[in-house]
Amino acid sequence: MNEKRNQLKESGRGLVVSWALCAVCLIGHLSHFIGAKVSWIHAFHSTGFHMSLSLFTLLGPGRKLITDGLKSLIKGAPNMNTLVGLGAISSFAVSSLAALIPKLGWKTFFEEPVMLIAFVLLGRNLEQRAKIKATSDMTGLLSLLPSKARLIVNGDLSVEVPCNNLSVGDQIIVLPGDRVPADGIVRAGRSTVDESSFTGEPLPVTKLPGAEVAAGSVNLNGTLTIEVRRPGGETSMGDIVRLVEEAQTREAPVQQLADKIAGHFTYGVMALSAATFVFWNLFGARVLPAALHQGSPVSLALQLSCSVLVVACPCALGLATPTAVLVGTSLGAKKGLLFRGGSVLERFSAVNTIVFDKTGTLTLGRPVVTKIMTQGHDKDTNTKQDSSLKWSEVDILRLAAGVETNTNHPVGKAIVHAAQAANCPVMKAGEGTYIEEPGSGAVAIVENRKVLVGALDWLKRHGVDESPLQELEETKNQSAVYVGIDDDLAGIIYVEDEIREDASHVVESLSKQGISTYLLSGDKKNAAEYVASVVGIPKDKVLYGVKPEQKKKFISGLQKEHIVAMVGDGINDAAALASAHVGVAIGGGVGAASEVSSVVLMHNRLSQLLDALELSRLTMKTVKQNLWWAFAYNIFGIPIAAGALLPVTGTMLTPSIAGALMGLSSIGVMTNSLLLRFKYSSREKEIGGPSVRIDIPLDADRVVDQDKKLKDPFVSTR
After folding, report:
1. Does residue 485 sit in the same domain as residue 508?
2. 495: which of 210, 254, 325, 364 lies 20 to 30 Å off by Cα?
3. By its UniProt entry, which CDD domains does this protein fall under (predicted)?
């Protein structure tokens, strides 16, 4: 990474110098047009001064570019640099001849090499910058691992040691709130562990003796004794980093269109220029003797052959891709779409298969309260009554939140947020009454009532009388939290990772465009298939319970026959995102997923995927139009420059006129690139504009009608 940054700095210095020289050229021309009389300003327009600028450009900022092009030509593999080098050198050579031999009657155009090098270096610098952004050193991901661990020695004493010194078989203690320092197996204790970094699932997992834990996961509420199973420095997090590095060192599968044909075009231009010189030198006097009255056949042949090289100078060809990419990426940034390089736009426009992660991508990635089911109960007499007398949804939510204000469990937080959104009074557990059993539930005295919140079997063990309670519908993707009040089962709070509102629309739109969609999840089968059925992904294209390395393997398999984009949001998706042809991160551009992804949806809306796809297609369409214009200009311009019209109409392109036409073609390319903004705006109007969604924070909404909140206290979380 340091080496690449140094190269970018060096490229930036060359870019600044080349554009400074270009600005000086423009100042000289401007002073000439406005008729400035000051002698030092007039010097800016002198032939000698422009010749010096052009020579300095070739030997300075453009030296490496021209040298690389000539080396490639010698090796028999000419590239875009070869075309640039030939164009710049031929422009300088013809202008030098015109300046040194005035009787030739040619005009000089020393500014052409300066402008050509400046524009080409701009495109190269933008591409280098994009590549550095697309490659992550993953130091932020590795920083999630703790540096020290509490090692058990002499049976019960613990000492802090560096994690790198841990060996297989060592036993370590992990306290509540700490990150697990090494991969291992639980030998003692009970706790809930947040593994969302690896599985992507928002709900923590209960860990009992014998369960496996991964370094970097967070121990929430219990003390664990863990036996180390991998030596220090070798962790699941490290495995993900290695997978990402492996994917990033792989070469891009698609190259720029201009580079694909630059080599053949170079040979063609050189051959045509040589043929032009030979023809007019040997046969020019016979074909058109009148044209030679002011010069020799050699002079005419040299002028026409140089005109061919100048007309073919790939200024427009070199600008075709970078100008369109520059407009496309800047337009995307304004729309909250971060594209990292022109090759990303090219690959994304060709995508025919999109793989979605489930949690945080098709879903919101956080548990929310979706339903509360109540049990008939008379609050005053504390006896069972008719079902019309029951704990209300607000009562159950309020009392449960009073217990859960003491926990950092994600489900508990969801209950508290739902109570806040419903404007429930803030309840607190009686001092010293709160007791939590990790992975099972919690109990406390709230408003002089014993309130238990947790799993059904845990409530039974604590004396809660299980009354018949018919569930309204199958739980599907939901988790059920049972609430007991004064030893009676009062109700059930359903919590789920809610599906994004625009997910089904996005999948449907992709299907209409002929793009296949897959769901790849580390969650259990029922949850994955339920989400897929809601958003419209076929059941046979759902993979569940997959680990990060399995995700990467699946993506690699699809790439053998398809152009694949992966859409994800977490650390567990990092390897698959880096491995796919196009990695798309959703979630505001934060975290390891955005570090390795080539496209980031900054507004955290899945519908932005459709906007990004449309913008990439329009950008590549513009690139192809630019390339068509650049080559069409050469197809018509080169024969005229070679003297094709000279015998018929007497029309001949001098090198200076050829240089002007070259500049005109560049202006046409840049104008078409700038029109991309209007094309995209009109396309947005045609499809009804970009889809917009307003997410209401769980703990913020206070505007919803109070009566509606009492009927549906968690309405603002939906």
Report:
1. no
2. 210
3. P-type_ATPase_HM
Would you say 620 and 356 are in contact if contact means Cβ atoms under 8 Å apart? Answer: no
What pLDDT, on the 0 to 100 scale, is given for residue 15? 83
Average pLDDT in the chain:
76
Exposed/middle/buried for 454, CB within 10 Å: 0-12, 13-18, 19+?
A: buried
Q: Transcribe 205-252 into DSSP letters.
A: EEE-TT-EE-TT-EE-SS-EEEEE-S-TT--HHHHHHHHHHHHHTSPP
> According to the 3-state scheme, what is the secondary structure of 268-325?
HHHHHHHHHHHHHHHCHHHHCHHHHCCCCHHHHHHHHHHHHHHHCCCHHHHHHHHHHH
Quote the CA–CA distance of 33 and 679 in Å, as a whole number: 35
pLDDT, one tens digit per residue, over 80-89 is: 778 778 778 8
575 and 469 inside one domain: no
Q: Domain count of the chain? A: 3
Q: Do residues 490 and 370 share a domain?
A: yes
Query: Do residues 441 and 347 share a domain?
Result: no
Three-class DSSP category at 339: strand
Tell me the C-alpha distance between 496 and 481, whole Å. 11
Nearest to 603 by CA among 275, 242, 336: 336
Q: 375 with 490, same domain?
A: yes
**In DSSP terms, which residues pair with 213 in a beta bridge?**
184
Output 246 or 618, whichever has higher pLDDT.
618
SS3 of residue 160 by DSSP? strand
87 in a structural domain:
no
Of residues 3, 548, 657, the one with CA closest to residue 306: 657
How many residues in the chain? Answer: 718
Within-domain flag for 131? no
Q: For position 577, which CATH number holds?
A: 3.40.50.1000
Considering the domain architecture, whether residues 334 and 410 belong to the same structural domain is answered as: no
Q: Structural domain of residue 189, as residue ranges? A: 146-234
240 to each of 167, 243, 369, 596, how far by Cα in Å? 21, 5, 33, 11
Q: How far is residue 435 from each of residues 293, 488, 523, measured CA to CA in Å? A: 108, 18, 30
Which domain CATH number covers 436?
Answer: 3.40.1110.10
CB < 8 Å & 24+ apart, contacts of 711-714: 713/372, 713/393, 713/394, 713/397, 713/418, 713/419, 713/421, 713/422, 713/424, 714/368, 714/369, 714/370, 714/372, 714/397, 714/418, 714/421, 714/422
Order of strands across the sheet with 542-543?
Answer: 337-339, 599-601, 582-586, 564-568, 353-357, 516-520, 542-543
472 and 563 co-located in one domain: no
Residue 136 included in any domain: no
> Are 352 and 510 contacting, i.e. CB atoms less than 8 angstroms apart?
no
- Please tell me what DSSP assigns to residue 465: B
* Residue that is last in its domain, among 613, 637, 660: 613
What is the model's pLDDT at position 712?
40
Would you say 546 and 521 are in contact if contact means Cβ atoms under 8 Å apart? yes
pLDDT at 709: 34
**Catalytic residue from among 357, 488, 497, 523:** 357
**pLDDT per residue over 256-280, tens digit each?**
455 556 667 777 888 888 898 888 8
Please identify, among 234, 259, 289, the residue that sits at the C-terminal boundary of a domain: 234
CA distance linking residue 451 with residue 403, whole number of Å: 7
**Structure confidence by residue, pLDDT tens digits, 568-578:** 887 777 788 88
Active site residue 357: yes
